[in-house]
Design brief:
The protein is mostly helical. Helices cover 82% and strands 0% of the residues. The longest helix is centred in the N-terminal third of the chain and has 31 residues, at 37-67.
Length: 251
């Protein structure tokens, strides 16, 4: 009887230990198989997008510094962080034995890139900040947060570190626009009409590849709109103005 009780107690302790371990390190049944050809094919484009996105961000912050030279030191620091992210995401592709499709990625960003360059040439700082420090950063943060939950262990660690930095970048643009809202609101609203629809089209373009990586298109869009609207609220826009700006995504 004593031995039976001892065995029962030991089994209960083992069961409790397993339950505790699973609650700390939950086993997801939804993780994709990172070794399949279909995963690697989709990853070649998704990985290229994040690599190119970080390069674009680096170049954009350096360009923005030409419009506000007194912020050169801070913007250069942000740009350097973007290059660190690029190296990290390049390593993620190498870890899976995937060659990033950079030609696809350059085309993917081409319209936003072109709009940024036009705004830069015209000296439209508000538009430049909207594109880079608000739209692209909110896009990146939302996508990275969704990806972290389904990433391979190596990429998960890299991406978690990147997200912490991206919030600093989002905050930079947010604070400048907040301080200058009285003079930049009209340009902000107009620039939003042109550029926010591009984000939706970009998400649609990679929806199939994202799905292979177990990232849901609707969740990506929802996460992006939450991050975007939260930022607009922090900048100081009221609910009606935010709703009007958000409507630009429904085209």
């Amino acid at each position: 009887m004593h031995n039976e009780l001892k065995i029962t107690v030991m089994q209960t302790l083992e069961s409790n230990k397993k339950t505790i371990e699973e609650s700390i390190n939950p086993i997801s049944l939804d993780l994709p198989d990172f070794t399949t050809d279909s995963y690697k094919d989709a990853y070649s484009r998704i990985n290229a997008i994040v690599i190119e996105g970080e390069q674009e961000a680096h170049d954009n912050y350096i360009s923005i510094a030409t419009l506000i030279p007194n912020e050169l030191e801070e913007l250069t620091k942000l740009a350097r962080m973007e290059m660190k992210h690029k190296k990290g995401f390049t390593a993620c592709g190498r870890n899976l034995g995937v060659v990033a499709d950079m030609e696809f990625a350059k085309k993917f960003f081409s319209k936003l890139h072109g709009n940024f360059q036009v705004a830069l040439e015209k000296g439209n700082l508000t538009t430049c900040l909207l594109i880079q420090a608000i739209l692209i950063e909110a896009f990146a943060i939302s996508a990275y947060n969704v990806y972290i939950r389904v990433a391979d262990p190596f990429a998960k660690k890299i991406t978690e570190g990147v997200v912490k930095d991206e919030y600093l970048h989002l905050n930079y643009g947010q604070e400048w626009l907040k301080e200058n809202l009285s003079t930049c609101k009209e340009e902000l609203m107009e620039a939003n009409k042109v550029n926010l629809p591009l984000i939706k089209k970009m998400l649609d373009e990679v929806a199939d590849d994202a799905s292979v990586l177990a990232m849901d298109r609707e969740e990506l869009m929802e996460e992006f709109m939450i991050a975007y609207q939260d930022t607009l609220m922090e900048i100081g826009l009221d609910n009606r103005e935010i709703a009007r700006m958000a409507m630009a995504a429904i085209v």
